Amino acid sequence: MKVIIIGAKGMLGQELARTFVNYQTLLWDRHEIDITDKNSVRNKIKREKPDVIINAAAYNDVDGAEEKEFLANQINGFGPGYLAKSLSDSGGILVHYSTDYVFKGDKKEGYQEEDFPEPQSAYARSKYLGEQEVQKYTNKFYIIRLSRLFGKPAASVTAKKSFVQLMLDLAKTKKMLNVVNEELDCPTFAPDLAQRTREIIEQKKPYGLYHVTNSGACTWYDFAKEIFTLKNISVKLNPVPADFFPRPAVRPKFSVLLNTKLAAMRSWQEALKEFIINN
Asked: Which pLDDT value is given to residue 88?
């Protein structure tokens, strides 16, 4: 099976590269392909004829998207559509990643795969656009929604830091941190997500939308507390409301992704413990 991984230098892309190492794999990042260039995408995909494209490329600056919505739409929205269209002729499969932010965030019990998205920010709208564009051009797709990705830092210098890395960096210079004790959702460990992606493909799961996160939910404050406990770092944490930090983009308050189609993954605490121990 020939697999192209796009966004290969990102946090998730690196883990996908490790997970699919036994396949005939091409690792592409921004220097190998510009997914916003429709003609270039068509020509490159036509030449390589992959069985699967895994698109881990994304514009992830949630607040920055408020001023750069056009760019976010190109990368998160139309780009995945170009990939889908390029595969529709060859019959290949597209795996594309989306986010819990496509939901409004007022459903305390969480969101199932088929719940209707109501994106509340430019970033969220761009990600929902990507979902729509993929489904417009191909029936052979896996759209995988995730939230709060963490794992080994990306090789790309422009990549966004994970919350775990941000907390550990701040703890080097600060003895007290204010952390939002709202916005309930589920952390996702990049290696676990990459492995689940492989399982979905190899087990030939029905095409469609999937929610893939580690089990359990937490606030940012809960997440930070667990990080410092596992690291045995003494930092005073102050739980604060979301509006303590004025931010341009609206975040969903409750965006737990309910997985109704796959076996549950291990808890986020267990995954975080493995990450902390090994890094």
From this structure: 84
Q: Is 142 a catalytic residue?
A: no
Distance CA 231, CA 158 (A): 27
- pTM, 2 dp: 0.97
> Of the listed 59, 123, 142, 221, which one is catalytic?
123
Which residues of the chain carry a pLDDT beneath 70? none
The full set of domains in the chain, from first to last, is 2-150+187-211 (3.40.50.720), 163-182+217-254+266-278 (3.90.25.10)
Report the amino acid identity of residue 234.
S
CA atoms within 13 A on the CB side of 121: 26
Contacts of 148 (CB under 8 A, 6+ apart): 163, 185, 186, 187, 188, 213, 223
- Rounded to the nearest angstrom, the gap between the alpha carbon of residue 1 and the centroid of all alpha carbons in its chain is 24
The length of the chain in residues reads 279
- pLDDT at residue number 90: 82
Residue 78 in tokens: 């139309």
End-to-end CA distance of the chain: 32
